[in-house]
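so my prof wants the structure for this chain in the tokens format not the other one, which i didnt know existed until like an hour ago. anyway here's the sequence
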Amino acid sequence: MKDIALILISHGEMAKETLKSAEMIAGNINGAYAVCMDVKEGPEGVIKKLKEVMFKLNDYKFILIMTDLMGGTPSNTAITQFYGKDNVRIISGFNLGMVLEFALSQDNNIDVLKDYLIEIGKNGIMDVLKRVKEVMDN
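here's what i got, hopefully its the right format
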């Protein structure tokens, strides 16, 4: 079992649907949870949902949080709740490729995994037609 839990936090249902899509491909992802902020909720709603998830994470040494957008309520709430916690890392921005790589990785070094997932996120965005042309021309 991996020592790292994953919490996705987003405006709307993005976190839940991204996790659901990843599990459609990779199967159940142990220790992965989604926290979705409803349009009527503010930071208090996100905090309440985060506390509910945290009760489920006692078996994990580390927590990796991925939020949808730097500066948004989900990200700001995660920062205020977990700033200074040595066992928590927070990434702003996530995509399906990052969640899949989390699911498939066996790495238990949270900093190595965090940096790897950031690279996956960056490298997953490309001009597809340009890339196909480059491959076809070689």
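also thought this was worth mentioning. Residues 4-137 form a domain with the Rossmann fold fold (CATH 3.40.50.510).
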